[in-house]
Automatic annotation (TrEMBL):
The keyword Heme does not apply. InterPro entries: HAD-like_sf (IPR036412), HAD-like_SPP (IPR051806), HAD-SF_hydro_IA (IPR006439), HAD_sf (IPR023214), PGP-like_dom2 (IPR023198). One of its GO terms (molecular function) is hydrolase activity. The lineage of its organism: Bacteria, Pseudomonadati, Pseudomonadota, Alphaproteobacteria, Acetobacterales. It comes from the Bacteria. Keywords: Hydrolase. CDD domains: HAD_BPGM-like. Gene3D superfamilies: HAD superfamily/HAD-like, Putative phosphatase, domain 2. This is HAD-IA family hydrolase.
Length: 198
């Protein structure tokens, strides 16, 4: 992961980039859809949609299965289940190393398609909640990734020109959003090394 010399801020996606919450979300979504929606969705279907915001994912479920869901109830149940299992979440060691190396040198932000409650719980679980001066989540923007809104908002809150921000991402939607915001985008997938946070 190379960081340009003119970098003034680093912005990190959360799920799949800083922490490995994707297995937790998979189990939580499956349980919520089974218990609230009355349908079974297999793991492969979810994995193909990694990086989707909640409403995008549920819209795709409705389209794929030809049903209408109680979205608020399913989202609430999913978030609750993720929070209940977040304590042992694994962190992405190479990305966390970057966070620790740059903390205090430039401002750091998180820009996530996840909910604030889960993002903050994830960061607290790995001991990094206080490291980020800005946390922007899906509740803060009208248009989720791949729209650039969430990254532009993070840069605005940091007070940094988007052109001088470097984004760390693990999804096609997130990388597209960062580039559309005029930022340098680092794909962390080739260097993912998840371990339980200590």
């Amino acid at each position: 992961m190379s960081i340009p010399a003119d970098t003034e801020a680093l912005i990190f996606d959360c799920d799949g980039t800083l922490v490995d919450t994707l297995p937790l979300y998979l189990r939580a979504w499956q349980a919520a859809l089974r218990e609230v929606g009355g349908i079974e969705v297999d793991a492969a279907w979810f994995r193909e949609r990694g990086g989707y915001a909640e409403q995008m994912l549920l819209a795709d479920v409705e389209k794929s299965f030809g049903i209408t869901l109680n979205r608020p109830a399913i989202i609430a149940a999913t978030r609750r289940r993720v929070r209940e299992t977040i304590e042992g979440v694994r962190c992405n060691v190479p990305v966390i190393t970057v966070v620790r190396e740059w903390a205090g040198r430039v401002p750091l932000a998180v820009a996530s398609s996840g909910s604030r409650e889960v993002v903050e719980a994830s960061l607290a679980a790995i001991g990094l909640l206080d490291v980020f001066s800005v946390i922007v989540t899906i509740e803060d923007v009208e248009h989720p990734k791949p729209a650039p809104d969430i990254y532009l908002l993070a840069a605005r809150k940091l007070g940094v020109d988007p052109a001088h921000c470097v984004v760390f991402e693990d999804s096609h939607e997130g990388l597209k959003a960062a580039r559309a915001a005029g930022m340098t985008a680092e794909d962390v997938r080739p260097c993912s090394e998840f371990r339980v946070a200590s």
